Amino acid sequence: MKRILQVVGILIGLLLIVAVGTIASSFMGRQAITDGFEINGIRIVKDGIVSVAFVPIGTGEVALIDAGNDKSGKAILAELARRQLGRDAVKAILLTHGHADHTAAILLFPSAQVMALGPEVPLVEGRAGAHGPVTRFMPVNPTGVKVTRTLQDGETVMLDQMPVRVFAVPGHTAGSAAYLVNGVLFLGDAADASSAGAIKPSTWIFSDSQAQDRASLVRLDHRLQQDGSNVTAIAFAHSGVLVKGLAPLTAFAQQNPN
Question: What local confidence, expressed as pLDDT, does residue 29 receive?
Answer without folding.
Answer: 85
